[in-house]
């Protein structure tokens, strides 16, 4: 799931690269993840900057282990269209939400296009 969230941040332009590596740094050559090395594997994200300020300025977790937040498609549409759904504030311009659906981890607009609801994982701006 971490790789899927990282790929969405990359696709939406918040980070400039996503690289697999270990606790020492990104891999120079491809190293497969096995049962022997899984504990040392990491994802390395390179932040994107615009005029010396990071493009990713806020990242907030919405769903927590103690309180899962599941939305229907209509509730996702409300959040995307500037209306509150449950206790979640609407998305602001330039902000995205990431949703875990039965079709995988998707960005909010993509989940609405595919007409699926799911667990709202986080939001980024």
From TrEMBL:
The reply to whether Thylakoid figures as a keyword in the UniProt entry is no
Q: By its UniProt entry, which SUPFAM superfamilies does this protein fall under? A: Ribosomal protein S8
Q: What Pfam families does the entry give?
A: Ribosomal_S8
Molecular function terms from GO:
structural constituent of ribosome
What does the record list as coiled-coil region(s)? none
Q: Which family does it belong to?
A: Belongs to the universal ribosomal protein uS8 family.
Protein name (Swiss-Prot/TrEMBL): 30S ribosomal protein S8
Native organism is Rhizopus delemar (strain RA 99-880 / ATCC MYA-4621 / FGSC 9543 / NRRL 43880)
